[in-house]
């Protein structure tokens, strides 16, 4: 069975009968059984129902019934999304009422195509963190951890990247408010797409920041992201095909994005030079407004007051039980006045408009996804160490959120320690198809995560 091929090929084999959905489900279950306890990707595993559904899908396909591109594809879903029949914890210590399990528009499109949901993956509580830790249910293990200790998987979609590396899913639904699909993809050697705010509906998803939350995808490759995006986007744009790398103008900001681990930065710079050698045009430039919007983010941004307001309405009793790394940030929202909150919104809007002018010089921007390697859990045990690493993990990714852009993370290869490094590509709002086309061109040159990294250690 050839399931290491792209999703487009897998879907074609399912329809020709060369591959059965039941075999895909069996493989996902076996992968989870092999890595489940150690990797801890899922809050709620649903392998039995997935297998039952896969058998029914095979019967439908044999009868000539095709309900959509994701039919029979194993998909993990972040535990913020409602999925009928599965509880929603949102990383908290107790499940939400059953009404939260109702499917929103995005999950409805997935289920309507008979995508096979393997389960609900772990998240940082209320998605409020970039490292992937969770004091209530344990932190999923980065599969690239080695003998020097367990490393974080990246957050907040912490289980999503691990589920792909584990092999229990071929596509993963996540959310991204400051980097929450791109950081786990970077740390776990996967690919991820952050959609433009407002492109996809956020109904049926427990919110962190209604002003910034965006549904997103994680996959094994840019090609798989393009397939998943085309399948789930209600506008029906068609699957993005690779563009010609020659002449692609890649803007490389010389400010802000290059504060981090030397090995990570070197890997990304080497990748950019390789792309230049293949015909891409590197445009060195300055991206204005980064320091100013990041300063707002460091002060709690919009997420802290918006999450606090949501909790005050929907679960005030949960505040005292929050994971300590989340509770500190929620408590800090009390000091943010209404005028300050409105000032922040206006400042982000104006800075985003001004920064967008940079795309007159280039087709997209490139930088490290996360400028640090995934930290060891032992190195972030103290609150101050956690806070520093969390900000460093999100520093590069949050800019696309605060400016209102779409963004992509692709594996760029290993650093000197053998840990995955991500290359981030950013594009203007609602330019996902062109961004994915460029991402596929880059991937065609440098290879996929499995090409660059091989198999995880665990």
Record keyword descriptors for this entry.
458 residues; Amidase signature (AS) enzymes; alpha/beta; single chain; 14% strand; eleven-stranded mixed beta sheet; globular; 40% helix
SSE topology sketch:
Layout: H1 7-16, H2 21-39, E1 42-45, H3 47-62, E2 74-78, H4 105-112, E3 116-121, H5 158-166, E4 171-176, H6 182-188, E5 191-194, E6 214-219, H7 222-232, E7 249-253, H8 262-277, E8 281-285, H9 290-298, H10 303-314, H11 324-331, H12 338-355, E9 364-368, H13 383-394, H14 398-403, E10 406-414, E11 420-427, H15 432-446, H16 449-453
Parallel strand pairs: 2-3, 2-4, 7-8, 7-9
Antiparallel strand pairs: 1-3, 4-6, 5-6, 5-10, 9-11, 10-11
Helix pairs in contact: 2-3, 5-6, 7-15, 9-12
Strand content: 5-15%
- Output the radius of gyration: 20 Å
Q: Could you state the order of secondary-structure elements as H and E? A: HHEHEHEHEHEEHEHEHHHHEHHEEHH
Largest sheet: 11 strands, mixed
Ends distance: 22 Å
Helix content: 25-40%
CATH class category: Alpha Beta
Which structural class do you get from the secondary structure elements?
A: alpha/beta
CATH topology: Amidase signature (AS) enzymes
Low-confidence stretches: none
Overall geometric form: globular
Find the count of extended strands (DSSP E, 2+ residues): 11
Q: Which CATH architecture would you pick? A: Alpha-Beta Complex
Average pLDDT number:
97
Number of helices: 16
How is the largest sheet built, in terms of strand order? 1-3-2-4-6-5-10-11-9-7-8
- Give the number of domains: 1
> By CATH's scheme, which homologous superfamily applies?
Amidase signature (AS) domain
């Amino acid at each position: 069975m050839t399931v290491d091929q792209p999703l487009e090929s897998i879907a074609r084999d399912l329809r020709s009968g060369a591959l059965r959905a039941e075999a895909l489900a069996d493989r996902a279950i076996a992968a989870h059984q092999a890595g489940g306890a150690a990797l801890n990707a899922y809050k709620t595993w649903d392998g039995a129902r997935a297998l039952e559904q896969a058998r029914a899908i095979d019967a439908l396909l044999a009868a000539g019934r095709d309900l959509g591109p994701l039919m029979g594809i194993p998909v993990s879903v972040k535990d913020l999304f409602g999925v009928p029949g599965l509880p929603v914890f949102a990383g908290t210590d107790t499940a939400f009422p059953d009404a939260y399990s109702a499917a929103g528009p995005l999950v409805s499109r997935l289920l309507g195509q008979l995508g096979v949901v393997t389960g609900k993956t772990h998240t940082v509580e209320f998605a409020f963190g970039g490292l992937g830790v969770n004091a209530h249910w344990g932190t999923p293990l980065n599969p690239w951890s080695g003998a020097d200790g367990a490393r974080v998987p990246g957050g907040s979609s912490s289980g999503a990247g691990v589920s792909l590396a584990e092999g229990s899913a071929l596509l993963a639904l996540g959310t991204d408010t400051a980097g929450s699909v791109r950081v786990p993809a970077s740390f776990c050697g996967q690919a991820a797409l952050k959609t433009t705010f407002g492109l996809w509906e956020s109904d049926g998803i427990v919110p962190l920041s209604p002003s910034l939350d965006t549904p997103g995808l994680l996959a094994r490759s840019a090609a798989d992201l393009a397939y998943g995006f085309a399948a789930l986007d209600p506008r029906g744009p068609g699957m993005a095909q690779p563009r010609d790398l020659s002449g692609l103008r890649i803007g490389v900001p010389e400010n802000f994005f290059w504060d981090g681990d030397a090995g990570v930065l070197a890997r990304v710079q080497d990748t950019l030079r390789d792309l230049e050698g293949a015909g891409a045009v590197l445009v060195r430039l300055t991206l204005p407004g980064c320091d100013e919007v990041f300063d707002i983010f460091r002060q709690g941004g919009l997420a802290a007051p918006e999450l606090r307001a949501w909790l005050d309405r929907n679960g005030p009793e949960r505040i005292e039980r929050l994971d300590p790394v989340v509770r500190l940030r929620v408590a800090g929202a009390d000091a943010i006045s209404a005028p300050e909150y409105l000032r922040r919104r206006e400042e982000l809007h104006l800075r985003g408009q001004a920064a967008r002018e940079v795309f007159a010089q280039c087709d997209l921007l490139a930088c490290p996804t996360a400028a640090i390697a995934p930290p060891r859990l032992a190195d972030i045990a103290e609150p101050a160490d956690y806070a520093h690493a969390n900000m460093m993990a999100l520093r590069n990714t949050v800019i696309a959120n605060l400016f209102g852009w779409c963004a992509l993370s692709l594996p760029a290869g290993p650093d000197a320690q053998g840990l995955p490094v991500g290359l981030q590509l950013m594009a203007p709002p609602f330019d996902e198809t062109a961004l994915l086309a460029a991402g596929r061109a880059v991937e065609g040159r440098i290879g996929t995560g499995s090409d660059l990294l091989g198999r995880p250690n665990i």
